[in-house]
Design brief:
The structure is a single chain. This protein is α/β, with parallel strands linked by helices. The chain is 40% helix and 21% strand. The protein contains 16 helices and 21 strands. It has helices spanning 46-65, 68-84, 86-97, 101-119, 157-170, 185-196, 209-216, 230-240, 265-277, 294-308, 329-344, 378-381, 397-404, 420-429, 464-468, 482-498; strands at 3-5, 26-30, 37-42, 129-130, 136-144, 147-151, 174-179, 202-206, 223-228, 247-251, 256-259, 289-293, 348-351, 355-356, 364-365, 368-371, 388-394, 410-416, 432-437, 456-457, 470-478. Helix 8 links the parallel strand 9 and strand 10 (247-251). Helix 2 (68-84) packs antiparallel against helix 4 and helix 2 (68-84) crosses helix 6 (185-196). The longest helix is centred in the N-terminal third of the chain and has 20 residues, at 46-65. It is globular and about 85 Å long.
Length: 504
């Protein structure tokens, strides 16, 4: 991909890093707070995807043949380069997505940690020894797929990039990212830094939705790692059916938080709100609905409303900002429509609930707390991507868990409470692949995220990701002495010639 700078406010020299698209089509990437064009990127077509996949396959073959220490050192150089460009990356991501600069910097930090973690696991991918067959010895090996196609949304893009690419590289694969055209500049720079660090098995390209389907269905792609919306996920799954490529699929879900009767509200309230309102409510990991025990419900709502009213909305580069704009005016309009539909269905707005004038041209929406929304209310039954938190009371934790499991379960759940038996019991009831207890941000690369049910399938992170990015080959040796094998073969042939069944 070629990146042609129109305006380059952070001085990132990307224009000479990539080849121009085959059909000379371009996409403008704008600053979400000003509308000013930052850079122009390639609108890649099928030919560009073919070239990128072929280059990744060739690079992957070289990559897997490098000594383990050389691959480790290259990945560590990549992590160091991310650290050296932390400020530039954070500013670029903030400008193109509206994420606060502090949020964008945290995204860079998580990406660095992930690359370093899997750099340390290069060479540890191994198999098993098989000794169950008399006279035979066998072993299994875990081998790379070749090329892993990465498909990720614009939100938390650098972290998701690393979460997909780092385990793929640790296993000896190449990796091709189709960066979301809404905000591709951070991932493009991240891929460029990988290549300059010596990790040439990583590349990134940009393009419209057709590029996503062509990459997912490419016959030279060995595996697909997808994160995004359910609609896009279904498209990717359909495209992967033609080459029968294995996938990991992580879909946006309605995550729930549970505040038990003995929870520490001083910790729970700000953490639950931060998990929902970070990235203007557009992150994949926060809680969109919170179940609060009836004994704490009024206190929780009162504290939440008071805290929300103190949140300062400002531009993403403002050091004092606590909530930035949404990615676009269209995204804000969708949130506004969802809130109106929820109120029409009986929900009650306790704070916020309106679009807000911002300090710039960004699409701001007030942080919003809503109560009295039934499970079928649009604000709970639908996927609201914005700063809206719904709250309900519960008496019976088991019943609350069953209710949560009916509203697009499978992602991440939070439980706040002091009683270990109560927390353990509730965690066991939830249809969620990841449960955070008294925390809202356990995104360490050592910890796998494993969506369940409608949240998708396949592990991201942890040692489990190494299994996802490799395939098993069994090698079996017959160690029986040659004389015994020859006699056994003659006996089998003789029985077959006489027409008598061979019973071994």
């Amino acid at each position: 991909m070629h990146v042609s700078p129109l305006v380059d406010p952070v001085g990132i020299p990307l224009s000479a890093a990539f080849a121009p698209p085959a059909e000379e089509r371009w996409l403008d990437v704008a600053d979400v707070t000003t509308g000013q064009v930052l850079l122009r990127v390639a609108d890649c077509g099928e030919k560009d995807v073919d070239v990128a996949v072929a280059a990744a396959a060739e690079a992957a073959d070289r990559w897997r043949r490098l000594p383990s220490f050389a691959r480790t050192e290259a990945m560590l150089r990549w992590a160091d380069a991310l650290g050296a460009h932390r400020g530039r990356l954070a500013e670029l991501v903030a400008r193109e997505t509206g994420a606060l600069r502090s949020e964008a910097a945290a995204d860079v930090d998580r990406a660095m940690a992930c690359v370093r973690h899997y750099a340390g696991l290069v060479g540890t991918v191994d198999g098993r020894t098989l000794n169950g067959i008399p006279g035979h010895r066998g072993h299994t090996v875990r081998e790379p797929y070749g090329v892993v196609a990465g498909l990720a949304p614009w939100t938390s893009a650098l972290f998701l990039f690393a979460r997909q690419a780092a385990p793929a590289l640790a296993c000896g694969n190449g990796y091709v990212l189709r960066a979301d055209p809404t905000a591709p500049l951070g991932p493009v720079l991240m891929a460029h830094l990988a290549q300059t660090a010596g990790v040439d098995a990583v590349t990134a390209l940009t393009g419209r939705d057709t590029t996503r389907g062509h990459l997912a269905g490419h016959p030279a792609v060995g595996m697909i790692a997808f994160a995004g919306t359910a609609e896009e996920g279904r498209e990717v799954i359909r495209a992967s059916a033609e080459p029968v490529a294995p996938l990991t699929v992580h879909l946006a879900t309605r995550n729930s938080a549970f505040v038990l009767a003995d929870a520490d509200l001083a910790a729970a309230v700000p953490c639950v709100l931060h998990s929902r309102f970070s990235h203007a409510g557009q992150n994949l990991f926060g809680a969109s609905h919170v179940y609060v025990h009836a004994s704490l419900y009024d206190a929780f709502v009162e504290a939440a409303v008071a805290l929300v009213r103190r949140i300062r909305m400002a531009g993403p580069l403002d050091a004092d900002a606590q909530l930035g704009p949404l990615i676009s005016a269209r995204a804000r309009d969708r949130v506004e429509a969802a809130v109106a539909a929820g109120v029409a269905d009986g929900a009650r707005i306790r704070a916020g609930g309106r679009r807000a004038p911002g300090p710039d041209a960004g699409a701001y929406f007030e942080p919003t707390v809503v109560t009295d929304a039934s499970p079928s209310n649009p604000l709970r039954a639908g996927q609201v991507t914005g700063p809206v938190l719904t709250v309900s009371a519960f008496e019976d934790a088991a019943r609350a868990a069953r209710e949560a499991d009916t509203t697009r379960p499978g992602g991440i759940a939070q439980i706040w409470g002091r009683s270990a038996p109560a927390v353990h019991d509730l965690a066991g009831r939830l249809e969620a692949g990841t449960v955070w207890v008294n925390t809202h941000d356990a995104l360490d690369p050592e910890i796998p995220l494993t969506p369940w049910q409608r949240g998708g399938y396949g592990a991201s992170g942890g040692l489990e990701a190494l299994d996802e990015h490799t395939r098993t080959k069994a090698v079996v040796w017959d160690l029986t002495p040659l004389a015994e094998r020859t006699a056994a073969l003659k006996k089998t042939v003789a029985r077959s010639s006489s027409g008598r069944p061979d019973h071994g």
